[in-house]
Amino acid sequence: MALTTLDPNTALIIVDLQKGIVGLPSIHPMDKIVERARALLDEFRERGLPVVLVNVTDGAPGRTERPRRNEPFPAGWEDFIPELGQQPSDIVVTKRTWGAFASTDLEARLKTLGVTQVVISGVATGTGVESTARQAYEHGFNVTLAVDAMTDGRSEAHDYSIKQVFPKLGESGTTQDIINLLDKRST
What we know:
Number of helices: 6
Radius of gyration: 15 Å
Shape: globular
Domain Isochorismatase-like: 10-176
Structural class: alpha/beta
Helix content: 25-40%
Oligomer: single chain
Strand content: 15-25%
Keywords: Hydrolase
Largest sheet: 6 strands, parallel
Distance between the termini: 24 Å
CATH superfamily: Isochorismatase-like
Protein name: Isochorismatase family protein
GO molecular function, one term: hydrolase activity
Strand order of the largest sheet: 3-2-1-4-5-6
CATH topology: Rossmann fold
Organism: Salinicola corii
């Protein structure tokens, strides 16, 4: 982990911390992931930096080897968990793919705000978080990954993303590392 700096206009992206997903099995206690995501949210909001809350309502179309879900999700499945304390100023992105940038207007919205860097956390490390990080990198954003504020249902996916993929996309650090850099910028 080598976290060096945060750009002056950095946005926080929280991926898929929604009612239908946080109850699924994960390799880390979800309450700790939510607690750390909330700490980041509080710090970004306090500083007036952009916050993006991402939820997913469906999968991308296309043929896959793994059978797709055929029945609709239960009511409220896509609702953000209350612990996030959704604010009117939050940017809300509803995705239908793994990554938050594909088939959404997130890139344009962030660039309109002058954002040059994103901090990403959420679930699942090897799908939603990694895909969002790849897309952010491909769109020219500096990427920071809050590795203790993310989890996955599979340890091998989580570990592979953190050890092999994330170092190629940006910098990684803990929630506290990120908060320390925010504090350093304020002094």
